[in-house]
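Re: [ENG-882] Designed sequences occasionally contain unexpected residues at chain ends

Forwarding the minimal case from QA. C-alpha cells:
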C-alpha cells in the first residue's frame, strides 16, 4: 500500500474529523460515559479542526483518497494550560485503527520534529495518557522524556513529555 504525506488544508477538515473519531473512538470503552461524551464533543465540534489548523502545521498521511494519519505541530507562542509559551508542541496524533503498526505515527512525529528544527524551536512538547501505550512507546523511542504527571483528564492519568532540540 502506498502512503503519501503532505500538509493538510482547510479542505481536509471533514477527513480530519472522520479520522479523529476513528483514532480516538477506540478509547470509548475505557472511558466513563461522561468522559467519552467530553471527548466525542471535542472531536465533533465544528471548531476543533479549523482552530487547530489556524495555528499549526498539520501533517497527514493518506492512502487513496483517505486520510489515515494526522499530527498537528504548533510553534512556540501558543501557550495553553499545559504548554509554556516558549515551547512548540504536538497535538492530536492519530492513526486510523486499520493502519496501526505501520509506522505512520512515527513518520508523522518525525515530520513534526523536522518542522521544529527547521523553524528554530528549542523544545517540543506533547501530552499523552496511560491508555495510549503505543503512542507513549513511539515518543519515548524518539527521545521524548516524561517530565511530570498532569492533572487528571478524562478521568485518566496524563503526562507531559519534552524533547530538547
Amino acid at each position: 500500500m502506498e502512503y503519501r504525506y503532505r500538509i493538510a488544508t482547510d479542505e481536509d477538515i471533514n477527513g480530519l474529523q472522520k479520522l479523529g473519531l476513528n483514532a480516538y473512538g477506540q478509547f470509548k470503552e475505557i472511558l466513563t460515559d461522561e468522559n467519552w461524551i467530553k471527548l466525542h464533543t471535542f472531536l465533533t465540534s465544528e471548531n476543533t479542526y479549523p482552530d487547530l489548523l489556524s495555528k499549526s502545521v498539520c501533517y497527514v498521511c493518506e492512502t487513496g483518497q483517505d486520510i489515515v494519519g494526522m499530527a498537528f505541530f504548533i510553534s512556540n507562542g501558543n501557550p495553553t494550560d499545559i504548554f509554556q509559551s516558549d515551547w512548540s508542541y504536538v497535538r492530536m496524533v492519530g492513526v486510523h485503527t486499520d493502519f496501526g503498526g505501520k509506522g505512520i505515527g512515527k513518520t508523522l512525529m518525525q515530520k513534526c520534529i523536522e518542522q521544529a528544527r527547521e523553524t528554530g524551536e528549542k523544545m517540543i512538547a506533547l501530552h499523552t495518557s496511560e491508555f495510549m501505550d503505543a503512542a507513549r512507546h513511539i515518543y519515548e523511542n524518539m527521545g521524548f522524556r516524561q517530565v511530570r504527571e498532569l492533572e487528571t483528564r478524562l478521568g485518566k492519568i496524563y503526562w507531559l513529555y519534552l524533547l530538547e532540540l
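QA comment: On inspection the terminal residues look reasonable. Residues 4-164 form a domain with the Aminopeptidase fold (CATH 3.40.630.30). Proposing we downgrade this to a documentation issue.
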